[in-house]
Design a protein that fits this description.
The complex is a heterodimer. By secondary structure, chain A is mainly alpha-helical. Chain A is 72% helix and 6% strand. In chain B, 31% of the residues lie in helices and 30% in strands. Chain B is built from nine helices and 14 strands. Classes of the chains: A mainly alpha, B alpha/beta.
């Protein structure tokens, strides 16, 4: 086992170094970083641009209203500009012309016909609060009592059921999407590495010192590590933004769900990686890689589609149960089903065990293809040729 | 000691590639595995290296069946070049050294020494696919020698090399053999490697057809030819040797086939008695002539078939 691991880690190390040095890695990682930063920064820039409101008033804006709106703006992240007009008609015109978001004149609040924002509501609330406190003072309450009354909060609102499930389903859904995207890139990288070794006959030298399983596991480890690095690159700006600005709302998901999502991602990644490696061992020329991995990509796409359509519509139906346990769809279907909260633990355990066992089996199948296909050159190896061949250790 | 190949057989489906090949490879000498294309040479080397499993027979090293650990100490250069195209030359050699069990530090220092020996010292950080064909060939050799192997196996190492490269590769192999390495290489260019191998194993259609030391095989073959330019009026002096036949006669240069049992020196003495011998020489058969005789083949115009 020690010798096996030593050889495997050498293969992985080489694959890692070569991929990190490659131009396509630098390009893709740079692109992902840009994408991620843009995804975090651009909405903020856009939202900051739109959260400046203007209030038009007859004469100078009342001090109480200004104070209330500015305080609300500070906590909700908007700024308010105040413009004064001579009379009610001018205030109306200012709103109508778009110079102001809302207009306050006497007892009337002017808004645009299609104004759907929250600003008019905030202005109205400020007016009501001001008027209430004035009347309370008039009724003989001390300023302290008035302040106490105004600090009464509505009951704290905690979403249960539907909203919580949506967050969890989102995490399950994310596993599918991230797995699908990661495998689209990593799968072709793994296939290219394996096919390069085969088409350049490096495999022949390697087979004299290594076992096929070492080459395949090492290659999958290398590309898997790189994919993980790229996912971290993709996630880092988001994580920083969440911590620093706390303006980005992520669905509240339990740590357990995240752990499960990561476990499913790893299982699914490993399973499909070995499929890609096995498919790539069949090629004779490097240009045949894309057609050789097409069947694997098809399985991935179909698995993803099944997971999304069947499981989302009826999480506890028979087909959904089957899809969430069958190894090639389980990594995508089970996380979504699990979010519904109706999956017995034994089904989860069974699905994970089956997926892991299939991955192990695929290592040996891919290794066997690798070794047998090596001596068949000059044409694309058909799977039948490999299977019908004699057993080679 | 050395390598022993015992009755190795292998077939691809219905096609029999090897049909019971046996021979020994001694350390300290260069052994050639020779034969035409399709004779089964590559299949045999792949079996020795564990890339293929034989249907029958065994390969022994120092008296024991070859195991994974033994093979890690061997060096193998396959027929088709196997190098990572995008890897820098030096890293490539060091990587193979580490795969063969060297520590990182040893692998790096030996890779450097080997690239210097092979004249590639200034190519250390160049990408492999940017090197010329000849340089890639030398780099390939470096990857199979970096761990100082006790057994060196090369499949068609001379294919496609220019005469300078052939000479330099031959010298590298001779030096390894002098240091006690077991060196086995395959070739279909029999006459090109005639001077390099000391021992040969000739295979044809999956069978061994000729085994032994090149010098012995050539000297003891019945196909010796005496070339003699003698200033004699006629060939009457040849009458004393009824078994000696005239192969060709061009511009007084007489070529005689001397069968086994007749001492070529006696024929030469008879010629000297008949007239002044201007020039003479004893031509031993070439390896391809030996092969054709042993494999019972005839030469067709396109070469050995």
């Amino acid at each position: 086992m020690g010798a096996w691991w030593r050889g495997t880690s050498l293969v992985a190390e080489r694959g890692l170094v070569e991929n990190v040095r490659s131009r396509s890695f630098k390009f893709l990682t740079g692109f992902l970083l840009l994408l991620s930063v843009a995804a975090v920064v651009i909405p903020q820039i856009l939202s900051e641009g739109s959260t400046a409101y203007t209030l038009a008033t007859t004469g100078k804006a009342p001090v109480g209203i200004v104070a209330a709106l500015n305080a609300a703006g500070k906590s909700a992240g908007f700024t308010v500009k105040y413009i004064s007009r001579v009379d009610e008609k001018a205030v109306r015109l200012a709103v109508r012309a778009g110079d102001a978001t809302s207009g306050l004149a006497g007892e009337t609040l002017y808004t645009k016909a299609r104004e759907t924002g929250t600003f008019p509501v905030l202005v109205a609330q400020a007016v009501v609060a001001l008027e209430t406190s004035r009347q309370l003072s008039d009724a003989g309450l001390s300023p302290r009592q008035v302040a106490d009354l105004q600090s009464i909060q509505p009951p704290k609102q905690i979403s249960v059921g539907q909203v919580d499930d949506e967050g969890r389903a989102g995490a399950g859904f994310a596993v599918g999407i991230v797995l699908y995207l990661a495998l689209t890139f990593a799968g072709s990288a793994i296939a290219t590495t394996v096919a390069t070794e085969k088409s350049t006959r490096i495999s022949e030298v390697l087979l004299a010192v290594l076992r096929p399983s070492q080459m395949i596991v090492g290659t999958v480890l290398a590309i898997g590590t790189i994919t993980l690095m790229q996912l971290l690159v993709l996630a880092a700006p988001l994580a920083v933004a969440v911590r620093v600005t706390d303006k980005i709302g992520l669905p509240a998901v339990a740590a357990g769900d995240i752990g499960l999502a990561v476990a499913w991602f790893v299982l699914g990644f490993v399973l499909y990686s070995f499929l890609f490696a096995g498919a790539a061992a069949l090629v004779d020329k490097i240009t045949e890689v894309s057609s050789a991995i097409l069947p694997v990509t098809m399985i991935l796409v179909v698995g993803y589609m099944l997971a999304v359509t069947i499981v989302m519509s009826d999480p506890s139906g028979g087909w959904s149960v089957a899809a969430s346990i069958f190894p090639f769809t389980a990594p995508m279907a089970m996380p979504i089903r699990w979010a519904s909260g109706q999956v017995p633990v034994w089904q989860l355990v069974l699905a994970m065990t089956l997926t892991a066992a299939t991955a192990m089996l695929l290592v040996s199948v891919a290794s066997s293809i690798y070794r047998r296909a090596l001596v068949i050159t000059g044409h694309r190896v058909r799977l039948r040729e490999v299977i019908s061949g004699r057993t080679v250790s | 000691m050395g390598l022993e190949i015992h009755d190795v057989a292998h077939s691809f489906g219905d096609r029999l590639a090897l049909d019971g090949v046996s021979f020994d490879v001694a350390p300290g000498v260069i052994t050639g595995l020779l034969g035409p294309n399709g004779a089964g040479k590559t299949t045999l080397l792949r079996i020795m290296l564990g890339v293929l499993s034989p249907d029958r027979g065994e390969v022994h090293y120092n008296g024991r069946p070859v195991g994974e650990q033994d093979r890690r100490r061997w060096g193998y250069m396959p027929q088709e070049r196997g190098l990572y195209p995008g890897m820098p030359a030096g890293d490539q050699v060091a990587h193979f050294g580490r795969l063969h069990g060297l520590s990182r530090r040893d692998a790096l220092s030996r890779a450097r020494a080997l690239l210097t020996e092979l004249g590639l010292e200034d190519r250390w950080s160049q990408r492999t696919d940017k090197l010329s064909g000849g340089m890639q060939q030398r780099l390939q050799l470096a990857t199979s020698l970096v761990h100082d192997p006790a057994v060196i196996v090369l499949d068609e190492p001379f294919a496609g090399l220019d005469p300078v490269a052939v000479a330099s590769l031959s010298e590298t192999l001779r030096q390894r053999a002098r240091n006690g390495c077991t060196v086995l290489f395959s070739s279909h260019q029999l006459d090109l490697v005639q001077d390099l191998c000391e021992d040969i194993a000739m295979v044809d259609r999956g069978r061994t057809v000729l085994l032994g030391s090149v010098a012995m095989l050539r000297a003891s073959s019945g196909r010796r030819q005496l070339r003699v330019h003698v200033e004699a009026p006629n060939h009457d002096w040849l009458l004393a040797f009824p078994d000696v036949t005239v192969v060709s006669e061009e511009a007084d240069d007489l070529r005689l086939a001397v069968p086994p049992g007749i001492e070529p020196l006696e024929v030469l003495d008879a010629a000297r008695a008949a007239g002044r011998v201007v020039d003479f020489g004893l031509d031993l058969p070439t390896l391809s002539q030996l092969f054709l005789a042993a494999a019972d083949r005839t030469l067709d115009p396109s070469g050995v078939r």
